[in-house]
Structures are given as structure tokens and as C-alpha cells.
Amino acid sequence: MIRRIVLWSVLIALPLLLLGAALGGVLLLRQGGLAPYRTPAAGGAAVTAGDATEGAYLARIGNCLTCHTVRGGIALAGGRPFRTDYGTLYSTNLTPDPKTGLGDWSAEEFRHAMRHGVSRHGVLYPAFPYANFAHLTDSDLDSLFAYLRTLAPVEATPPPNDLEWPARWRGALVGWRMLHYRPVPLPEPADASPDWLRGRYLVDGLGHCTMCHGTRGAQGSLPAEGYLAGGRIPGQGWYAPPLDARQLARYDVDQLAEYLSTGNGEHGAAYGSMAEVVYTSLRHLRPDDARAMATYLKSVPAHGGDEKPDTGRFLYAAAQPTVNPHNGARLYQDHCASCHGDGGEGRDRDYPPLRGAVSVTAPDPVNAVRLVLYGGVPPTTAGNPRPHSMPPFAGRLSNAEIAAIVSHIRRNWGEQDRPVSAADVATYYGIRGD
Ligand code: HEC
Ligand code: HEC
Ligand code: HEC
After folding, report:
1. Domains of the chain, first to last
2. How many Å lie between the centroid of ligand 3 and the Cα of residue 343?
3. Gap between the Cα atoms of 108 and 433, Å rounded
4. 375 C-alpha vs ligand 3 centroid, how far in Å?
């Protein structure tokens, strides 16, 4: 009897085990096999063939500075916090300090970490955009490394990560990669122009635009179908719109290139996390590169085909739309029309139009509410040296009044009919970006 039970258990368990192993093997292969985990030997000569001047430019466009610098801290010495659903992690020190930075790294180690997201410290968290940096050419990676080596070494250790189990354990990231990471080289369409290819290289590679402009999947992943499809940015509380032919239809290529490098233009002004991206990164774009990015972005097929995306119902704080006693149209006239115009058409380049604006057309109302609460000022750039600002209305208008105005502008100029409630405004009060 016992022997039969053992026999049957083995007969059942063995295929299951084999199946599990085969599945694990397939998933391991799909995230790049074992190669990513074989990091090059540490140390060696830290010489690189790269061009440090080009590297400085590339570092700007890759925005290493924003992520690897703590507010008010020394540039690129690390320690900026990243809030995730699993706790907080901190970026690392990229200066050439041998103890706490990249001082004794070889160029091979650097290339490997950038391409595969694995360094001598183990598997790296996907807050580091290695999935994008994987597309960089050897020569660009060497130039970046050459530039980093010209920095003054700074001894600085980031605070220890404060993450929950199992995210705390770097080994768990192998499982995450098996589920969510699919490195694929960028296809090369035969009819692509050099401009388009350069634009895609910048957008998908260094620029890592989909880190904010992508729709996230399970466990903070960025599935292929969410590519540049838009969504609420984790840990920042801003909504980033899709980047595709429909969203960007109101810009021509030159206007879009201008927006990217100046943060301003006829159709909008950058705010929130986009203002920071323009200020620390995109305002340094060479004119050709700005045009190349714009050319590529305008070619991205509209998400969801001809349908307008309807994700709005998930993004409101209050479950039910409520009746609002205030007259949004009148409040708009009193508080907003002097800058944004009676019909939401904006005024020259000083005050952006609201008709068709990101925050007014977006399924998610959070940007519009936050701008009215806290006001904003576009980034100061060579192309927009003295930006005009928008005053904050928190404290001047009640939550219900703000809700009425935002509902009014979104209904009339954005085709977003679902009213924003005072409870939505109260919730967005608390959201603070970092
Ligand atoms: C969106 C934010 C972000 C950007 C942009 C970014 N990094 Fe990072 N990077 C991180 C975070 C967070 C880590 C730490 C990951 C970890 O600890 O697992 C990291 C880790 C690294 C590491 C591994 C260091 C180590 O000691 O293991 C290297 C190398 C690196 N980044 C280089 C760069 C370079 C070069 C750029 C610019 C081209 C850059 N990063 C841009 C967030 C970013
Ligand atoms: C840190 C997050 C973040 C990153 C990274 C980021 N963006 Fe944005 N972007 C936003 C947010 C938030 C908005 C909405 C606010 C606004 O319109 O200024 C936005 C808006 C935009 C708009 C305006 C769209 C419109 O319809 O007017 C464009 C264009 C844009 N981003 C392009 C890019 C490109 C290209 C990149 C990569 C080089 C990029 N963004 C990287 C957060 C980000
Ligand atoms: C003194 C002029 C001024 C007034 C008054 C003003 N705004 Fe603005 N508004 C601006 C400026 C400047 C910006 C660009 C801010 C930025 O880029 O950070 C802006 C941006 C916006 C945006 C973002 C548009 C986009 O591109 O998505 C919205 C929405 C908005 N304002 C709504 C309002 C509402 C509603 C009121 C009245 C309660 C108002 N504004 C009052 C100057 C003003």
C-alpha cells in the first residue's frame, strides 16, 4: 500500500517538477538567459576609449543628474529616494570615488551594468532604466563612462534601502525579470530615415521616456503593450500623457522640437515632472536631436486605434460624481480668463491654451487639479528665458470651487464629461511629488 502511494506520488510529482523546470528555463531565457548575471571581473585598468565631451552631452540627455543627485546635494553623488509600492530605494554614487562610487570600475563593468541591470552589487532595481540603456551603442556607453571619470571623486554612500520583503532581497529581482523583463533589440524598418532612427534611439534609449509615459503593468512593470501609452507616474502623482500621433497631432515637428527643448510653445508649457525633465535634460538637446525625437514621436501609432482612451473611471478619488453648487463658468471668468482667455485659447506664448491641453483632455484629472491648487512655472530655458507663472489657488478657492472650475474646463475644452468632486480635490491636496 505504502509503496503504491510512493510510486504514484513520484509519477505525479516528477512531470510537475519537469514542467516547472522547463517553464523556469523558458522564462530565464526570455529575460536574456544567464549572461546578464555573469558580471565582468572587477577592477582592471579603468581606461576607456570614450569621448568625455560627447559623454557629458549624453549624460544630460540620459538625465543621470536628476536621478543620481539628492536635492541640494553634490551632482551625481547619489542618494535620491525613489518611492515605490514596495518602499523606498536610493540611487547610487556615480563619481569616481574608489570606495563608494565607480572609482575602481572597468569600462566593461560599466557597460554590463548599463546594458543588463546587473553590477557587482547584484541585480539592480528597475527604477534604473537599464531596459532603455540596453539600446545604447558601445561607443556611447564608453563616452558616458569617460565623462563620469572626469568628475571629482566624492565619498558618499546612499542611505540603506527601505523595502519590504521580498523586494528587499536582490535575488527576488531574478524572479521579477523572469516575469516582466523581455530585452529585445529595436527592429530596423527598411524605409526608416536616419532622422527617425536617431529619434527612436534617443526616445527609447537614453531618453527613457516610457519610464514616465508608459502604462504600468503588474509589480511596476512596463509591458510592451503599455509602451508610451500614458499613465499616472508611480511615486510622483503626475499623469503623463501618451506620446503618439494622436496626442501630438496639434504640434507639427518643429513645434514639438521647440516644446522639447524650451518647455514652451503655442500648444503648451511643461509643468510638474516634465518641467524638471526639460530643465535638467532636454533643454540641452542639439537642434538636430530635438527634431529627430519629434519626428519619431509623431510617427508612434495612436494607442487604442480610433477609440479615445477611457481609463478615467479608475483615476478619480471619489466613487460617485457629486452635484456641485458652484458655477464653474463664472468662477473661470473671475479667476482664470485674464490669462487663459475667455474661450480657453491662451495668450500668445505667455499663457498656455487650455483648449486641447494635456491636463484638460487627460482621462486623469490630477494634473489640472494640482496646477490650480499649487500653480506652476514653466522651466527657464534659453528659448523661454523669462517664463510667466500661474499663481496657486489653494486657500483662495474652496475645494468645491476648484472642482467646479476644473469640471468646467475639462467638459468644454477637453471632452471629459465626468465631473471632478470636492473629494477628488481634497485627495490631490496630499499628493506631493519629489
Ligand atoms: C530614472 C532614474 C535613473 C536615471 C535616469 C539613471 N539612473 Fe542610474 N540608477 C538609478 C537607481 C535607482 C539606481 C540604483 C539601483 C539599485 O540599487 O538597484 C541606479 C544605478 C546605477 C548604476 C549601478 C551602480 C552600482 O553601484 O551598482 C549605474 C552604473 C548607473 N545607475 C548609471 C547611470 C547613468 C550613467 C545614467 C545616465 C545615462 C543613469 N544611471 C540614469 C536610477 C537612475
Ligand atoms: C519624470 C517623468 C517624465 C519623463 C522622464 C518624461 N516625461 Fe514627458 N511629461 C511628463 C508629464 C508629467 C507630462 C504632463 C505635463 C506637461 O504636459 O508638461 C509630460 C508631457 C510631455 C509632453 C507634452 C504632450 C502634449 O500633448 O502636450 C511631451 C511632448 C513629452 N512629455 C515628451 C517627453 C519625451 C520625448 C520624453 C523623453 C525624452 C519625456 N517626455 C520624458 C513626465 C515625464
Ligand atoms: C497669471 C496668469 C494665470 C492665471 C490667473 C491662471 N493661470 Fe493657469 N497657467 C498659467 C501659466 C503661466 C501656466 C503654465 C504653468 C506651467 O507650465 O507650470 C498655466 C497652466 C495651466 C494649466 C495646465 C495646462 C496644460 O498644458 O495642461 C491649467 C489646467 C490651468 N493653468 C488652469 C487654470 C485655471 C483653472 C485658472 C483659474 C483658477 C488659472 N489657470 C489661472 C497662468 C495663469
Report:
1. 35-39+47-155 (1.10.760), 194-217+224-305+321-429 (1.10.760.10)
2. 14
3. 36
4. 7
Say which residue the cell 468645491 belongs to.
400
Do residues 76 and 94 touch, judged by C-beta distance below 8 A? yes
Q: Which helix (H) or strand (E) holds 118?
A: strand 118-119
Average pLDDT along the chain, 434 residues, taken 10 residues at a time: 83 90 91 91 69 97 96 95 93 97 94 97 96 97 96 97 94 94 89 96 97 94 94 90 95 97 94 96 98 98 74 66 87 97 93 94 94 95 94 94 96 93 88 48
Closest atom of ligand 1 relative to the 133 alpha carbon: 38
Predicted structure pTM score: 0.94
> Radius of gyration over alpha carbons of the chain, in Å?
24
3-state SS assignment for residue 407: helix
One-letter amino acid for residue 171 of the chain: G
Any residues with Cβ below 6 Å from ligand 2, and which?
203, 207, 209, 211-213, 233, 238, 240-241, 243, 247-248, 259-260, 267-268, 270-274, 277, 282, 293, 297, 358, 367
Is-contact 257 287, C-beta < 8 A? yes
State which amino acid sits at residue 284.
H
Q: In whole angstroms, what is the distance from residue 415 CA to residue 12 CA? A: 58
Q: What cell was used for 202?
A: 534617443
**Residue to mutate, 63, 65, 212, ligand 2, most ligand atoms under 8 Å from C-beta:** 212
